[in-house]
Design goal:
The structure is a homodimer. By secondary structure, chain A is mostly helical. The first copy, chain A, has two domains: 47 residues, Homeodomain-like (Arc Repressor Mutant, subunit A), CATH 1.10.10.60; 131 residues, Tetracycline Repressor, domain 2, CATH 1.10.357.10. Helix content of chain A is 75%, strand content 0%. Chain A contains ten helices and no strands. Chains A and B meet through helix 8, helix 9 and helix 10 of A and helix 8, helix 9 and helix 10 of B.
């Protein structure tokens, strides 16, 4: 078996999410995930240390893209405009597969306390990444923290709207639309 | 042994937090927690189903107080003023013991991935409770969600400042001061 298997990582994520949604996170074994993805268990363990990590796949890359987009925004834009740039950069990592597995991923999380905790912690990680990136631009810390929370909300709400919609639009416009709604809301606090 | 033991619940929480901070969450058993609190294991299990639950102690009551304070705020106040009323109501549940165990609780959470996840999920629970209470006042959903996130940030930041300070002030003024800082920050988004 070749050590390099194109698409194995993505197939493993899809297989895991399907199994988690079908039969529950706790009941799913790495052996089943590898079998459904059509790879050996040793291939699975080259990509992920355990089944939990399969659901965290891409989180660091996502945080990195959010931070890069914020860092690369023009220096004179507002904190929320910088967050919008972060969301647009992050959206480049969201393809049709992400959209397709969205409803099953949501079902899997809803059915597992452990996955809900993991999801909540992921949210904290995204917030920290955005706060740090905004602070590095010179944004005052309370403003950076608040803008990052708005960014996380926009990310989550944009994602929920995106996976429910039936169109050819990418994730970016959904995330930015959610951010614009929250931007308006911030004037009514 | 009497079934009703005044203070047993609070002693168990303090004992658990001390042990988690000293020797780590994973290494601490319910037997050790009961022994340090000076109660039997069966008393511990009358109060908590497992050691994780000891750290979630009071979370539902806290969410309830936040929601009640928001519901009871005068009808014409702004969403953030309603959140401030929720924080003030919640602060009634925070006494000297909460302040005293704060640094150890923080150390325990910092040392355990499992406790970090639990803490992150607690945060989501507080946010949902405040969002629902604000929406029940007729606040538009995006505004309610945003105000709730500001409330959670104020809660966390106020708590961090409170446990670090050395004065006789209760939790309430710290939480409200943090909220005021974030309120000002919201105009700079």
């Amino acid at each position: 078996m070749a050590r390099w298997e194109p698409g194995a990582r993505e197939r493993l994520v899809v297989a895991a999410v399907e199994l988690f949604a079908d039969q529950g996170y706790d009941a799913t074994t790495v052996t089943e995930i590898a079998a459904r993805a059509g790879v050996t268990k040793s291939t699975l363990f080259r990509h992920f240390s355990d089944k939990r990590e399969i659901l965290s796949a891409g989180q660091e890359a996502l945080s990195g893209r959010l931070a890069e987009g914020i860092a690369d925004a023009p220096p004179d834009v507002s904190p929320l405009d910088a967050v919008a740039a972060g969301l647009e950069r992050a959206s480049e990592a969201f393809g049709p597969v992400n959209r397709a597995i969205g409803p099953q991923l949501r079902a899997a999380i809803a059915s597992s306390a452990e996955l809900q905790e993991r999801d909540a912690l992921k949210r904290v990680g995204l917030s920290v990444a955005m706060t740090d990136a905004l602070a590095a631009r010179g944004v005052a810390v309370p403003v950076a923290q608040l803008a990052a929370e708005v960014g996380v909300l926009a990310f989550k709400q944009g994602y929920a709207a995106w996976i429910e919609a039936d169109d050819d639009t990418g994730f970016g416009p959904y995330a930015v639309a959610a951010l614009d709604t929250l931007r308006e809301a911030s004037s009514e606090l």
